[in-house]
Amino acid sequence: MWELLLSLHLLRGDDGAVVFGPWKRQVRSRLAAGVPMLFDLAPPRGYSADFLTPSPSGEGLEAGLDALLSTPRPVLRRDTGRLAAARRPGTWTRSLAEGDLDTLHRLDGILRSYFAAALRPYWSRVHTAFTRDRELRVRAVADGGVEGMLTGLHPDLRWRSGLLTMASACDRDIHLGGRGLVLLPSFFCWRAPITLRDPGMPPVIVYPVAHDLGWAQPNAESRDPRLALRTLLGRTRADLLAALTAGGGSTGELARRLVVSPASVSQHTTALRDCGLIVTRRRGPAVHHSATPLGEALVDGRPGIPSVRAG
């Protein structure tokens, strides 16, 4: 949900022209008519509705939208009231503030359409950036402990004697009060880390990851060696096989990674397993999928090992 919110900020504003310019042009050409409704809740500057970013669960888009639909009415009133204090709100926000179910479901549909247009086509590249950042943070913890990792997370973050200070639009001390701190890497967070305004919500720091220049250029996919694999297997099945060459995963993990349903993952893993491209093993209550040598060779574009048959 954070990527939805922060990408809206970038799309509406002028920031990040070099890194995000091609993406903005591509997305603006295919946005659905209802998206301006989202801009009322997430302006490019100032406060955005906190209920758009429920507490991170790691369960992906579906869980985030379910949490949004369950937002208590007092929270809806509070957040829309804060928006109204800064700018003239859209007329529809009154019904949203009252928790009108039709309005909430309309918002749910618009968010889904926006994700399909603005994020889904680029999600494999977003996930690659997350994976690189995660590896970087793991190494930082190994080298300097949690304090060293937090100190090196971003120049705007300072960790001293158990107090985390964020210097961005305004200096802010984040008091954990015995609570844990959630660190969320973000592809569409630009330059400075951000956090929630509501101190009653779980502490979250959203920070920007590094980007490859040209990541959204129209020819970026043509440089991807998996393009031919997608032509052969289809996009979802090819991306699933590629994900399995990077360490494998359970059905639920793969569904969250690829932003598809678990049923879709099960269908595609069955087909890949029948072709000898993956294997599936049970680990306790879950099943774990991984690529076979043949599947890895197919993803890498290497020639397979010919089978030896008795003559």
UniProtKB/TrEMBL annotation:
Residues 227-303 form the HTH arsR-type domain. Pfam families: HTH_5. InterPro entries: ArsR-like_HTH, HTH_ArsR_DNA-bd_dom, Metal_resp_trans_reg, WH-like_DNA-bd_sf, WH_DNA-bd_sf. GO terms for molecular function: DNA binding; DNA-binding transcription factor activity. The keyword RNA-binding does not apply. SMART domains: HTH_ARSR. Signal peptide: none annotated. The keyword Ribosomal protein does not apply. Keywords: DNA-binding, Transcription, Transcription regulation. It comes from the Bacteria. CDD domains: HTH_ARSR (cd00090). This is Winged helix-turn-helix transcriptional regulator.
